[in-house]
Amino acid sequence: MQFPQSLDRGQLSLFQEALFSQPVTSLSPDTLPDEWLDEGETFSEVSLRGSAGNCQHLLAPILRALSEDQDARWLTLIAPPAGQTQDWLRRAGANRERILMLNPRGNQTALQLACEALRLGRSHTVVSWLDPLDRLARQELVQAARLGRSQSLNVRLR
User: Fold this and answer.
1) Which of 129, 112, 113, 121 is nearest to 151 (CA)?
2) Which residues does 73 contact at the CB level (< 8 Å), separation at least 6?
3) What is the pLDDT of residue 38?
4) Residue range 114-133, pLDDT digits in tens
5) Other beta carbons within 10 Å of 123
6) Fewer CB within 10 Å: C terminus or N terminus of the chain?
7) Distance between CA atoms of residues 145 and 158, nearest Å
8) Sorted alphabetically, which InterPro entries does this protein's record hold (predicted)?
9) What are phi and psi of 152, to 5 degrees?
């Protein structure tokens, strides 16, 4: 099977603009139902300790499985570490045609971008590398995932 060549930066920027062109609703814990504050169904976290190569080896099957999900939406990677490239995803056996890799621009943080991707619901799973991740940031991810009917997976590399 031959994989398409990776998109150049200009094409990705145009795609990001199209993907995130819809207005985003502001969230407040006071306006959400109590069951939306339970992170059990929408948020997961993996903590990996060791060398970069070992962590990549452990993460590969997770990303491969998520890229083959039956849900037709994207698997979105937000600000992945330098080692998680399109070439690495290919070698890991991931379906790169179903993966979108995004990095924050300007003053935008990785947390803001992850929340935006989750809220829009165009991704079945949004994987982020946020560390540290405090309770408030976790709640933002949970609420955004609930709104977009998506899953949030945070990866902590130690």
Assistant:
1) 121
2) 121, 122, 123, 124, 150
3) 52
4) 999 999 999 999 999 999 99
5) 27
6) N
7) 25
8) Cell_div_suppressor_SulA, P-loop_NTPase
9) -115, 130
- Distance between CA 117 and CA 121 in Å, rounded? 7
Helix, strand, coil share (%) of the chain residues, nearest 5? 45, 20, 40
Has this prediction a pTM greater than 0.90? no
Please tell me whether residue 23 adopts helix, strand or coil conformation.
Answer: coil
Backbone angles phi, psi at 120, to 5 degrees: -70, -25
Longest dimension (CA), the chain: 50
66-111 tens-digit pLDDT: 999 999 999 999 999 998 999 999 999 999 999 999 999 999 999 9
Backbone phi, psi, residue 47, to 5°:
-115, 120
For residues 120 and 148, the answer to whether their CB atoms sit within 8 Å is yes
Q: In what order do the strands lie in the sheet with 74-78?
A: 43-48, 151-157, 123-128, 74-78, 99-102
